[in-house]
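In this section we walk through a basic example: taking a raw amino acid sequence and producing a predicted 3D structure, encoded as discrete structure tokens. The instruction is simple. Fold the sequence below.
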Amino acid sequence: MNQQQAEKFYHKKMFDQKTNRLNTSCVKWDLRQQLFGGTDVLPMWIADMDFMAPPSVIDALVQRARHGVFGYSFVPDSYYAAIINWLQRRHGWQVEKEWLAQSPGIVPALCMLIRCFSAPGDKIIIQQPVYYPFSEIIALNDRVLVNNALKFDGQRYIMDFVELEQQLAAGAKIFIFCSPHNPVGRVWNKDELERVGQLCQKYNTLLISDEIHADLVYPDHKHIPIASLAKSFLNNIITCMSPSKTFNLAGLQAAYLIIPNAEMRKRYEKEQHSLCLNYPNNFGIVALEAAYNTAESWLDELLVYLAANLKYLTEFIVQYIPQIKVIHPEGTYLVWLDCRALGMNGTELKNFFYQEAKVALDIGDKFGAGGVGFARINIACPRELLVDGLQRIKDTIHAR
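The resulting token sequence is shown next.
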């Protein structure tokens, strides 16, 4: 067995390994009683993985911990270099160091950007069903949600560009764009992205592109950073990215923004400083650099494992639970399930999964309009857990 084969074998074994996450202040596992009414519920909801982070990242964090001093940090040049090299190597996007800004997370970044570039009462466009914190932070900041609802053709979701142009023309201040899309799994193609960029440019609307799932794309699809498509897009697009989904590092608070427009970047950094959120996390810096510099082969094997999990899920549901339909994702490790044939409303669907099947999925209505009757399942887990969850759902449906 050569080194490459040995590495693949090691990664496969690592992804199959069940890690006990109990008593680690883990939202996914330690809050089951509070959130779902029992510790016997299998959590397959929140978007983190049940895989250990890449060994090289763990080694780097252990080495940093052994230093023993964890004072205030600044963002070193090596941090920027890791990001720049990753985006060039993985996505063919050449960004400049001065375009980069950091944040403790993408949702905090979105909040700061909303506060920077809009005022109470301003309209902000999102595309529901979509990641639910989008609507929450719009409401919390007293802005007006405008829904450019995605259109479902029975197989996949597409954008309603006619309505989008009308909404932009009506004076929307910001468009928060999810690319790849969570939860419906679309990886937008070049034509779709160019059209979005051109419309935002035409109506001088700030486009904030949440691209946190950029690295998690299945074969035959390719993520394209929307800001990379045209130089003219750079002045009114802010891209939000992070290694957190890619390498399971969400708790380390290492996100970054690409803001080519110097005036916008200055305004963001002023807002960040006013909230005292400009000090980075010691371990987040180390983890980001180690992930981007040393863990690419781990990611490649993760994508193979996720594709196999997706295949298993799809085939199992087709064979044993035909009442549920898989909306095949083009990216992310989150799968959108059409449960409408079960004939349940949101409360009934929640009770069915949480109380009867003992599986915690994200129920679709929390993602807004168009989510009723759907549910989101997280397949970034060892195959054994996926099998357990699907079997619980199957047995519960068959027992009814």
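Looking at the output, two observations stand out. The first strand starts at residue 42 and ends at 43. The domain at 3-54+296-399 is CATH 3.90.1150.10 (Aspartate Aminotransferase, domain 1). In the next section we compare this with other chains.
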